[in-house]
Amino acid sequence: MTAATSIILAGVGGKGVITVTNVLSQGLVALGYDVKVSEVHGMSQRGGSVHAQVRFGDKIYSPLIEMGTADYIVGFDQIEALRWGSFLKQEGRMLVNLAELNEDTYKGKYEDSFSRYKHVTYVEGTAIAKETGNVRNENFVMLGALLQALGFEFGAWKSTMEKYIKKQYQEDSILSLLRGMREQRVAREKETVYEL
Fold first, then answer.
1. Packing angle, helices 138-150 and 167-195, rounded to 10
2. Predicted local distance difference test score (pLDDT) of residue 112
3. What is the DSSP letter of 74?
């Protein structure tokens, strides 16, 4: 078991944030962690902001993450990642899907805004999901990147994916998750070489 780990998953309606949150939290419970989840999706049907906070560890007393304390922010697009950036702790990691943006609601120049964060991994989630056969699976690409960053192996998540994903979507979803894990592993290896 570990101390508490805090994760924010942020996107917009239709990106699968809630689905990934459910799979993540159920998988963590199956692995024996204490898990607390909080989610907000008030205007999700109109493409509004959707986010979830997941905390897990030995014993979790609150699902809420304070500003500057999140270990990970998983942005299903750049704008939503930046919107939650103030919650990331200094050594925290941001995983960002380089999805094409339909509408820019961020008031700053988001292209330059990621430079303020120490650890950012960009994931071609949308492009990878297209390659695996279902563009809607970009959420599982991002989940795969997160699981790899957390140090989990796929074998620990296979049964959870099979249990919570409808059978007709399992193959594409699992393939997308595996591609996301690989993307994160490659990004981390490049980062390690750079630090040498």
1. 50
2. 73
3. E
Residue 30: its H or E element: helix 17-30
What letter represents residue 84's amino acid?
W
pLDDT at 133 over 50: yes
Strand partners, 7: 54, 72
Q: Is 106 left (phi over 0), alpha (psi -120 to 50) or beta?
A: beta
What is the model's pLDDT at position 1? 47
The answer to whether the CB of 71 falls within 8 A of the CB of 6 is yes
Residue of 92, 90, 23, 91 lying closest to 52 (CA atoms):
23
Q: Which amino acid is at 78?
A: Q
pTM (predicted TM-score) = 0.89
Q: How far is CA 143 from CA 9, 36, 42, 164, in A?
A: 9, 17, 22, 14
How far is it, in rounded angstroms, from Cα 53 to Cα 39?
6
Cα angle for residues 39, 119, 81 (degrees, 5° grid) = 35
Q: In this predicted model, what pLDDT tens digit does every residue of 145-179 receive, in sequence order?
A: 999 999 999 999 999 999 999 999 899 999 999 99
And the tokens for 167?
Answer: 């059978």
